[in-house]
């Protein structure tokens, strides 16, 4: 029999996404945010508390969040109320607010003896790496999610980016504001990012009486 006619044998490999939830990661709900904060405060974990609060406020991609420098958020002996960052993906600046809760946690972390003389806001504990890697950040986020008893495959670093804007859109329906906060260049990207559909549009319309 010709070799060309023999059946091909394939290894019975398990699909990488078997049993996993794939697609867009879910944003955290307000009760999740407060639960994680309380857990980190009780644990006395100054770095992770500041990292979590900053992730929610800044709405930055993981690669930009881990690359933040102390000078980006701290000047004249105090944490700034607003800051900006050049996005690595687009090369364009995006501004973000730093709320009072986040400023307090950042100040505690920046003034920690462990931070003396360091340039990056989230220094890595791995020799040769100046700051946390996106993989390390993803593992930290996974730990937060698991601590709440949530399904870890449904959440990720993008959950942190989506958390605040999801609430802003839910309360205001203002897509333009969300677009600016996320630093998107096209409205279509924002619509896809939030998963806006006809049901959202109808819900907003039903709330308006003329």
TrEMBL record:
Is this entry keyworded Cell inner membrane? no
Transmembrane regions? none
Query: Which InterPro entries has this protein been placed in?
Result: DNA_brk_join_enz, Integrase-like_cat_sf, Integrase_catalytic
Q: Which GO terms describe its molecular function?
A: DNA binding
Keywords from UniProt, A to Z, are: DNA recombination
Domain annotation Tyr recombinase: ranges: 23-206
Q: Which GO terms describe its biological process?
A: DNA integration; DNA recombination
This chain's protein is named Integrase
Q: What organism is this sequence from?
A: Paracoccus liaowanqingii
Q: What are the leading ranks of the lineage?
A: Bacteria, Pseudomonadati, Pseudomonadota, Alphaproteobacteria, Rhodobacterales
């Amino acid at each position: 029999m010709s070799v060309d006619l023999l059946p091909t044998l394939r290894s019975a490999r398990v699909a990488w996404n078997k049993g996993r939830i794939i697609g867009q990661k879910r944003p955290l709900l307000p009760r999740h945010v407060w639960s994680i904060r309380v857990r980190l405060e009780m644990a006395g974990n100054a770095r992770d508390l500041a990292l979590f609060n900053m992730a929610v406020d800044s709405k930055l991609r993981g690669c930009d969040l881990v690359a933040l420098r102390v000078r980006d958020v701290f000047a004249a002996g105090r944490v700034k109320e607003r800051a900006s960052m050049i996005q690595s993906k687009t090369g364009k600046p995006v501004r973000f607010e730093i709320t009072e809760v986040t400023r307090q946690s950042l100040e505690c972390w920046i003034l920690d003896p462990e931070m003396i003389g360091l340039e990056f806001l989230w220094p890595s504990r791995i020799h040769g790496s100046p700051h946390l890697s996106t993989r390390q950040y993803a593992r930290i986020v996974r730990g937060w999610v698991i601590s709440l008893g949530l399904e870890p495959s449904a959440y990720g670093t993008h959950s942190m980016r989506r958390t605040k804007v999801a609430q802003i859109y839910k309360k205001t329906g203002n897509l333009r504001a969300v677009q600016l906060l996320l630093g998107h260049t096209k409205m279509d990207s924002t619509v896809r990012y939030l998963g806006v559909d006809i049901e959202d549009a109808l819900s907003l319309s039903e709330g308006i009486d003329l």
